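for the record, two folds in this file. i put them one after another cuz i was lazy. first one right below, seq on top, structure tokens after. the second one comes after a little note so u can tell where it starts
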Amino acid sequence: MGRNINLNVFKDFVKSNNFGGILLFLCVILSLVVANSPMAKGLQDILDTVIGFENEAVHLNYSVSMWINDGLMAVFFLLVGLEIKREIVEGELSSPKKAIMPILCAIGGALVPAAIFFALNSGAETAAGWAIPMATDIAFALAVISLLDKRVPVSLKIFLAALAIVDDLIAILVIAFFYSSGIELGYIGYAAAFMAILILMNRFSIKNPYLYLIPGVFVWYFIHHSGIHATIAGVMVAMTLPTNDTSVESPLERLEHALVKPVNFLIIPIFAFANTNITLQSEMLHGLTSPLGLGIFFGLLVGKPVGIFVTSWICNRLGMGTLPEGSSWTHIIGVGLLAGIGFTMSIFISILSFNNPLFVSEAKLSVLLTSVVAGTAGYLLLKSNSKKSR
């Protein structure tokens, strides 16, 4: 007998991602226009402006760009963490039978692109960027597949959402273990103390989700100073929010509902605008055909669909999972191509991967162009397949 779960949050999540994807695209275009105009220096000066507060006890004096990448993106990761936990409790990851296919496909779709990138960049200065093509941008991917409306099965959209969420979890773990440095155990201890408070709040069934944000700010501060990337704090806090598998809206779902629109309509567009202000140079065009550019291109455009398709085929053959209801193998290839839209998380990992500004810009440009190609190819393949089916 099926559970009467709350689907409203998932519907709001998908709807917001649809419009958020369009807004994200517009912000990318605007950022590129500004970066290649006389306004470029003014924008960079704003991003380099240091704001905040600092004394002997508190150190919060950072540039605007760092506040965006370490502060606002922590809120984005909080939302991602809430989505992951909700899916585990009541969604597509709530039972082994439902979860095995998207989980394994996400792993396959992350390992193959990383292997392709590393094979092309092994021994080079750019080898540190191996994780760039591992990630999928949920907002863009869901926005593209939603343009197809009823031409693809609803189950395929849910499969893509679940796969992308697991993909984000993999990226989060990669950032935590491979892109953090200089670990300070004292700060980790302080963060652990506030995490203990959050866990106790959960145990005592405190229902107001906003009360969890107060200790959460302290977790973010201490994680930020510990050497682990600050955005991980968002996921840690999310895991302490109480939830359920019924139609009654839980504290987790209340907070997720409150964050979906601000994150998709404000935080991610700001991140995109601030981080795709790429002033095009001749060196970057060369970078598109360098091991760095080719690693990202083939990782996202080839590695993603191959990894997802092969993993799903193996699962199907071994009886470990089945294709989403009403879908075909062509649908799986199309989803694999849409998963090659790396944008937000891939750009974020690019920033963490390199100290050389040219490498960062080349990686951003490669991610941007490859994501456009992957999204277009996935859309056209799924649309063509729907016509053949009819």
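(here's the note) second protein begins now
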Amino acid sequence: MDLDVYVTAHRAEWDRLDQLLRRGGKLSGAEADELVALYQRTATHLSLIQSSAPDPMLTARLTQLVARARATVTGTRRSSWRDAIRFLTAGFPAAVYRSRHWWVPTAVLSTLVAVLISWWIGTHPEVQSAIGAPAELREMTRPGGQYETYYSSHPAASFAAQVWTNNAQAAAMCLVLGAFLCFPVLWILFLNMLNLGVAIGLMSAAGRLDVMLGLLLPHGLLELTAVFVAAGTGLRLGWTLIEPGPMTRRAALAEEGRAAVGMAIGLALVLFLSGLIEGFVTPSGLPTWARIAIGIAAELAFLVYVYVLGARAVRAGDTGDVEETDRSAALPTAA
């Protein structure tokens, strides 16, 4: 492309678009139609210049012009409670449902890893001795020991807030670090499963597996599910970089990235609920069966939420992405 010739041929259109934008809403019907047509053509011009003959100053000018035109054409929209309700009833469950082929296998394989680690530690005294001295292990696993008193070591409200913050950070890291070709997400998952397997294995070796499961299951079912969803979404985001499908890599990553941001918000709410259970139910004086029943009920409610509302939203065309009017303009690319 001869950039000078191209600019000469289309400068009048860009100037005319700028003139119409400066007039704000004082446009006739014909002028409004002209503005829309000029906006579409200028977006195409910008795409061609970016792909064939990028010029920083010209690209900056046209980018600003296209952004102003888009804002004028689509108008501005304020967020409302309806957006929040739509997100909770359609957007978030749809995003979780769409990524189920990633987080369900992630959950199964991660749980298997944790089970194998706990079995290995629980059945091999030499591995236990490598973890800590016998006196230290007894202090951790005895009745009233560190594992058992961990959940009541702080006031329930502050403990729930601390747990929520830590888990939300872990989930956010899984979502964000997925863009680094999946490897950081796999490492975070392994560390979580290692810690879980060590705790279960040591308590099992001490003959107190029932106590440990009674402490873990009330909040752990929902908490781990949220972590698995975050990890699966992060892995999907990383795989998008490797295999973007029919879209350009940039467009595919942008779409999955926007959905991941929404997932982070939704999972923060899920982890808030699991934090409340961990802070108020797990260390409570309720019978073990009652505490576990609450955890199972919370887990089943989340799965029904995803597989009923999420499936319904996906069938209606929702992908978990933001509204089309809130997305950046999709510019055509040169062949």
